[in-house]
Amino acid sequence: MTVAALPRVPYSGTADHAELEHWRGIARQVAGTLAADALARDRANAQPFAEVKLLREAGLLELLVPAEFGGAGGHFETAFEVIRILAAADGSISQLLAYHYINQSSIAFYAPAEVQADWWRRTVEGSWLWGDSVNPVDPTLVLTEEGDGYRLNGAKRFSTGSGVGEVIVVNAQVEGSGELLAFVVPRDAQGLEIVDDWDYLGQRLSASNSLVYRNVRIEPADVLGPVTDEPVSTLLTPGIQLAFANFYLGIAEGALERGKQILLGRKNAWFLSAAETYSQDVVFQRTVGELKARTAAVAALAEKLGRRFDALLSLAGAVTQPQRAELAVEIAELKVVSTEAGVEVANRIFEVTGSSSTKSDLGLDLFWRNVRTHSLHDPVDYKKIEVGAYFLRGESQPLSLYT
Questions:
Q1: Which residues have C-beta within 8 Å of that of residue 171, sequence separation ≥ 6?
Q2: DSSP letter string over 118-175?
Q3: Mean pLDDT to the nearest integer, 351-376
């Protein structure tokens, strides 16, 4: 009997209307809960265990797990929309979930097809939130061979989700051979110290702590696989950038909606205006209209590329490097405009809401603080260069966790 070959990645097809509507509804419910006390939780700056519980109970952690392994069998387009909806309410928790989706999908991108089923089943049975420890510009990890496994030493900053995730994806080079491996470390692993030092301007509940590894044992079963230049495997990075873009877009949409509420609540008008209220003043209507139009244009591009990402993933091992490069540049274009729209909207919304909207208890600053913080993740100017080099000369940037 001939046994069918397992797919290189277990994703196929694109989301239909029913899938998208189902998860949009769930995301809006969760977003409503998060929005109710987002500012208070941001100020408390506590590890977001309660928020993770909310995501877990809503079924959002298993959205991308293939149905044959007990998950919801959703698509990345759907996951990106969920990220966008949550970002409009709470940027920190949106980031936490966005990174979870990318980290969890390391199973598909790095692990051999024949061992993926076990990883998918374990993540469903444990209802794992996946954190990460992969910051490529902070390469202080040393992975040393020991028997049939390894020992991990060193430290990593900016490890999103590490404070609350059940497991953490780590990338490290094997000392001597230089092979780069992706592997999984439980949050309670012996020798792992989680340093609760995430105290930044924004994204305060993203659990992006520093981690210290002291002789942490890595068993062969903990290894997902090598990090290679296989085109389908390297789609992980465009996926991350697409998640970022939807996150920035969601913050822009949230800032616009909050600004609208504040503007409509102002019952008078500027003394030089002929309008009865601020919302009837064409000066303020023009500003809001400009910001809304730019955000809508970014949304249209994001929706298009979410579907394109799923379609390319469906090719699995047949994805070519030129196909990967083309999509990566299109996503870089989205990264540019979503970053600029997110920062501009979160900033300029104050122009229409007035000085009273800077009151601390209104929390309008939360949108700006969140998008300003995360948009510094990797310089957007280099994304512009990436787009320009490809458009002018067909040149692609070197493969990395940024490009």
A1: 133, 134, 136, 180, 181, 182, 227, 401
A2: HHHHHHHHTTPPEEEE--TT----EEEEETTEEEEEEEEEEETTTTT-SEEEEEEEBT
A3: 94
Q: What is the pLDDT of residue 137?
A: 82
Tokens standing for 282? 């064409």
Determine the pLDDT at residue 5.
Answer: 65
Q: Are 106 and 169 in contact (CB under 8 A)?
A: yes
Strand ranges for 219-291 from DSSP E: 223-226
Both tokens of 319, joined, read: 């994805």
Structure-block tokens of residue 183: 């592997």
pLDDT of residue 3: 41
pLDDT greater than 70 at residue 394: yes
Residue 23 contacts residue 30 (beta carbons within 8 Å): no
Spatial separation of the C-alpha atoms in residues 367 and 358, rounded to whole Å = 12
CA separation for the pair 304, 249 (Å, rounded): 14
Q: Are 270 and 281 in contact (CB under 8 A)?
A: yes
Residue carrying the six token digits 């293939």? 66
Longest dimension (CA), the chain: 84
- Two tokens, residue 253: 């949409």
Could you give the dihedral angle defined by the CA atoms of residues 234, 16, 91 and 286, in that order, rounded to the nearest 10 degrees? 110
Report CA torsion sign: 30, 31, 36, 37: positive
Q: What angle do CA 248, 253, 255 make, to 5 degrees?
A: 95
- Contact between 206 and 198 (Cβ < 8 Å): yes
pTM over 0.90: yes
Strand order in the sheet with 223-226: 130-133, 167-173, 180-186, 223-226
Q: Which helix (H) or strand (E) holds 193?
A: strand 192-195
Question: In whole angstroms, how large is the CA radius of gyration of the chain?
Answer: 22
Whose tokens are 């949230």? That residue is 254
